[in-house]
Design the sequence.
C-alpha cells in the first residue's frame, strides 16, 4: 500500500483550480479529488489525453471516471496474470 505522503490528487474537474499570483490553488469538493499513486496518475492522464472519445466527447469528470475504470481493469488483469 502506498503511504499517504506519496499519493497525488487527480482533479476530476478543473473548475475550482486557478493560478493566483503564479501559484496553483484549488477550491473544490473532496468528491472531485481522487488520490492516486504518481505512476497511476500519469497513466490516467495519458488515457484521457490520448483517447479521442475521452478527450473530446465527454465532460472532464465523465472522462476521468471512465479512465479510472479502464485503469483499474488493466491493473486487475496485470495482477491476475502475475
Sequence:
Amino acid at each position: 500500500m502506498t503511504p499517504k505522503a506519496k499519493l497525488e490528487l487527480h482533479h476530476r474537474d478543473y473548475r475550482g483550480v486557478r493560478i493566483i499570483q503564479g501559484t496553483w490553488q484549488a477550491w473544490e469538493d473532496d468528491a472531485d479529488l481522487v488520490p492516486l499513486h504518481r505512476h497511476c496518475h500519469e497513466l490516467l492522464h495519458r488515457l484521457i489525453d490520448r483517447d479521442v472519445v475521452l478527450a473530446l466527447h465527454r465532460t472532464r469528470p465523465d472522462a476521468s471516471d471512465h479512465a479510472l475504470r479502464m485503469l483499474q481493469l488493466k491493473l486487475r488483469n496485470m495482477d491476475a496474470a502475475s
